[in-house]
Amino acid sequence: MKIWFDKADVNYNSFITEQFLLIPFLDESIIRANKDFSSSATWIKDITELIEYTNIEDCDAIVYPYKLDGNIVKYIKLAEKFNKKLICFYNDDNNKPSCLPQCVEIYRTSIINSRKKINEFGLPAWSCDFLDLVNLNIKKKVEKPIVGFCGAITNTVRQETINKLSANQNIICDFKIRDSFWGGNIHDKGIRLEYVHHMNNSNLILCCSGAGNFSYRLYECMSLGCIPIIVNTDITLPCEDVIDWKNIGIWVDNIGDINHIINNYWSNITDEEYHNHQKLIRKIYTDYLSPVGFTKYLNNKYTDL
User: Fold this and answer.
1) Are residues 101 and 178 in the same domain?
2) pTM confidence score
3) Which residues have a Cβ under 8 Å from the Cβ of 154 and sit 6 or more positions away?
């Protein structure tokens, strides 16, 4: 994918996840200093092989080199002048619709789907690939599935969902309730490893929006091949044109139906199907939702224009 950005605009001494397409032009030590994006070396290598810097006339897309802010005006004018798409990324809890022109295509973590603009698209929320920390644990079907959740109760939807699940006699609830986001210390290795092991030992993972209308946990559990229970809070998810989200996870539109939906899924799936579903989840993460997979997705989208 051929991209253009003004190299003079970039601070080469720092890195944020919104700059993942700029990885080929940044020092690896700077990228790894960002502890939320410090995963396998293949991310850096593979993204570097996918991205080419070119002049603005020949690029497939202009890339805004920072998190979406008011300085984008300069880039909008250039996109309009050269008849190019301008792509930008916004990893944030804010879900207010944008008011930018349609030459700008915005990939963001938090979107209210019913209010989404035509130029707004889902963005995965990245932490490291959890298979860098533990081995892939493809589980066998058991009589009662373990439904896992380790995190804070940041909204009423989470609380209502946990209350509903706790009354379900057909599942085993393994809920570790934290006092704050990521246990109050997002880079504490002990807390993170406990979170990862808890998730890796669960059959199903409750994924419900937190402060923003999205869930880090969704992508983290998929990196482990864990099957997500996706509570639909009017969400927009990434790659909706190629991922059938309603069949990838256990999709819940109405919390009142959650126990019936889980019970129905678990009673009807065979051990072989459960085994294959876990492997499919991991493949979807690798192919589309990891930083490399999402870069390939964008590559396919913009080089076809």
Assistant:
1) no
2) 0.94
3) 181, 210, 211
